[in-house]
Amino acid sequence: MQQGNVYRNKIFVGVLQVDDEGIYTFKYDKEYLANSTAKPISVNLPLRVDKFSSEYLFAFFYNILAEGSLKDIQCEQYRIDKNDDFSRLLKTTKEDTIGSITVEEVI
Question: Nearest Cα to 26, choosing from 57, 63, 71?
Fold first, then answer.
């Protein structure tokens, strides 16, 4: 299982993971949900206690990945298969993303 902690402006929001069967889940942190200023990270991932599940990487997270030649460079640098979007997400979105969301790999 691979897992990443999701942050908005360095505030812990929740956990994104993929299990050994290839099912992706995202779950908001209870403390984040309890905060009156909490906002969803995406319209497709509204605030809720229950986890979200998908057979595919959630579009919101896929869309923060680099494309084109930068993708090629990242895959070469981190020795990641070009089709392994989740590993690339964990390795390359800890900082310097477009927008306020970052993902930090849990090792």
Answer: 57
